[in-house]
Specification:
By secondary structure, this protein is an all-alpha fold. The chain contains 15 helices and two strands.
Amino acid sequence: MTEDLQHEGQSMIRNRHGRRLGIASLLLLVSCAGREGTDDGPPQTEATEQRGVECTSLLGRPLYAGEVDAPAFAAVNAKLADNPDDLNLIFAKGLLLENARRFTAAIALYSARLAEDPTNVTLLRRRGHRYINIREHAAAIADLEQAASLHTFKKVKALGYKENLHWAIWYYLGLAQALHGDLEAALVSFRESHAYSADKVALLASINWIHNLLRRLGRPQEASKVIAPINEGMGYSGNYFKNILVYKGLKKESDVFDEGTAKGFVLGTMGYGMANWRRASGDMEGAERLLRKVANSDAWHSNGVMAAEAELARRN
């Protein structure tokens, strides 16, 4: 299965690659031009720009960036001035931008390096992930398909999800495909991410998405089989684990989730999971109410928030 998808990705991305780099270069120029300063005041840097609209949700809601850690940003820029080709420094700068929800600037940063190193899988994975955050699903799929076509996948043990590129390529490709509305393709990708998970976080995240996609595709028996191995007393924790306990009937929703008080990533991750569960259980009104609450969360870069938003937008 992996090899078949890799061959498909290679043929699809070859046709798009040159065009995408041109767009990325334009993004970089626009981003830099916006920091030149005007007669209204002193020039602003990436770290000191006022909080502004980063992008617009699929439902038309403005989504705001935060503030970059200015001292850390200045420090990494100083190091990059001496070592401009150091990928670790580029990733460190990108992470500072990402943590401030400055995803467009992070994309421009990765695009500039990809113009010189277009087959760098880690850069493609990171840029693809951030295209998801700004709701550019087709661009994300293109990057992540290319990463999958270039990468040599290996099953590893005891590797955290933040370092597990084998898992992350498939996981974020699945997420982009799901948000784009291609649930069958997303299911394939999430199954691959499950195969390459090497820690509990990655395992539970993949299982959660596979379960919900199978439910959405009208395959409840398969969905139940996917979550069957997960039980209490196995050392699992976190929001995805709580979701799965509810899916299995081991916990009630009220035991693990409070719709009235949940916020942030708890609302995004568990709220979207519980909305799906309510729908599967026949509570259509409750599912719709929760879905709309999740879609309007301030944690707009949460996977669950993006999923709720994309689902509602597809109905319009």
